[in-house]
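Researcher: Quick test of sequence recovery. Tokens follow.
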């Protein structure tokens, strides 16, 4: 079964190395799945809570109906790469072939976005910028596909 993956994120990648890394992993992922990255404009001005609310509203509007939704959040579940790949494969086998990953802006997402999520995932116990989170997510998605297919990218 071929997967359809949508990544919805706040902001463009501003650093060259992040753009290059995200592009590299996007190209690699496309061997296994269709990938669409939706960049929503960062809100400017106002208190952080207001910015988070406005960005979260726009994120919610873009989540595809029926997609299995994973929100990246520092308070989410921690998974290793093999565990992530296993969860992805298990859900694919049960017919969930459309996935949406949501990455908030600098101030994260609100409870409405977390509430819409089928799963809330943390990439690390450490804090990463939302721009770095995008590249790390794309790398982990690529790694998951190689793990599922027993390809040599992931050193077991």
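Model:
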């Amino acid at each position: 079964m071929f997967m359809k993956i949508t990544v919805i994120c706040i902001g463009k990648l501003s650093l060259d190395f992040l753009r290059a890394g995200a592009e590299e992993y996007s190209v690699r992922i496309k061997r296994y799945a269709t990938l669409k990255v939706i960049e929503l404009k960062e809100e400017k001005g106002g208190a952080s809570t207001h910015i988070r609310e406005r960005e979260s509203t726009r994120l919610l509007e873009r989540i595809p109906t029926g997609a299995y939704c994973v929100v990246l959040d520092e308070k989410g579940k921690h998974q290793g790469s093999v565990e992530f790949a296993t969860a992805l494969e298990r859900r694919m086998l049960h017919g969930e072939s459309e996935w949406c990953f949501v990455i908030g802006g600098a101030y994260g997402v609100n409870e409405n976005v977390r509430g819409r999520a089928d799963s809330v995932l943390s990439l690390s116990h450490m804090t990463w910028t939302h721009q770095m989170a995008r590249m790390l997510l794309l790398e982990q998605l690529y790694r998951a596909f190689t793990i599922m297919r027993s390809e040599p990218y992931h050193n077991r």
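The helical segments are 16-29, 48-62, 81-93, 111-116, 130-148.
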